[in-house]
HNH endonuclease (Sphingosinicella soli), 112 residues
Amino acid sequence: MARKHSKHGSYEDPPSEEESSAEPVTCWLCSRPSGKTIVWHHPVPKSRGGRDVVPMHAICQQTLIANFTNAELQRHGMDVEALLADPGVRKFVDWVKNKDPDFTATIAKKQR
């Protein structure tokens, strides 16, 4: 049976001004406005039962993955202040705060 109305609206409707002027999403870790790419990160890894997601820059997510194990991320949970207390993460956030929202770089893994 055919639908009376499209699930996604018609192709002729341009996006409204309200949708295009929405406030930029801020990164959960560095609090900078997001760029074109938003990564939805699980603060508690899915393998450890995490369901919540937060918006982040890709470079910020790479930093967390490089500096913490899944068990450590599970212990910290949604507490961003505990993550920022780590000297490596704090140094990164201080460094990246003046960069462009779409800035990207290679992140070296922490030696364990």
Q: What stands out?
A: The beta strands are 39-41, 54-56.
